[in-house]
Specification:
Structural class: alpha/beta
Number of helices: 3
Strand order of the largest sheet: 1-4-3-2-9-5-6-7-8
CATH architecture of one domain: Beta Barrel
Helix content: 10-25%
Order of helices and strands: EEEEEEHHEEHE
CATH topology of one domain: L,D-transpeptidase catalytic domain-like
């Protein structure tokens, strides 16, 4: 029996391409003093944080998350870490967990989704939007929760309430190169 030629109707399904890597090169010895355009990628499932400088992976750190690490954050107290595109909106050099970088969760996208399904009020939406525009921590007293940080304290096991924890030495390095406005991409 000879195989039939492939046509549109009998071709096997094509799998979508894997997520494109945000870097082309790896240089884990890259000097911190030369990092001028950092981006942070958090890979929740792999428990990794990548620091990228101009398409080069310059640091990789282990992370810990909250008690419910799978899935996106939907409401205050769910123990999840949000997924999506965010930015660093605050830096605290004397955090309860050594040092911390605040993430702008909830962002306007999170707020719009919550507003459309009646989780938050118009006033809450406006306050979140204003905080985002001013690049400061959004209010955390809405149904969405908030106060999501990348902070020290260790990463031996998942222990946060939804934040991203790293070793103190890792937050020290991140803190030295990251500024308010640095993009943070949190992946499933």
């Amino acid at each position: 029996m000879t195989p039939r030629p492939l046509t549109k109707t009998n071709a096997p399904p094509i799998s979508p391409p894997e997520c494109e890597l945000p870097y082309w090169a790896v240089d884990l010895d890259f000097p911190l003093s030369l990092i001028t355009n950092p981006k942070i990628y958090v890979l929740k499932e792999e428990r990794r944080l990548w620091l990228i400088q101009d398409k080069t992976l310059v640091r990789e750190f282990h992370i810990a998350l909250g008690p419910n690490p799978k899935g996106d954050k939907y409401f205050r107290g769910d123990g999840r870490t949000p997924e999506g595109e965010y930015f660093v909106c605050s830096k605290n050099s004397s955090s309860q967990f050594y040092k911390s970088l605040g993430i702008n969760y909830p962002n306007p996208h999170n707020a719009q989704n919550a507003l459309s399904c009646g989780m938050i009020s118009n006033n809450d939406y406006c306050l979140i939007q204003q905080a985002n525009d001013a690049m400061r921590l959004p209010p955390s007293n809405t149904a969405l929760g908030g106060q999501i940080f990348i902070h020290g304290g260790g990463c031996q096991k998942d222990w946060t309430l939804g934040c991203i924890a790293v070793q103190n030495s890792a937050i020290e390095e991140l803190f030295s190169v990251v500024q308010v406005g640095t993009p943070v991409f949190i992946m499933p």
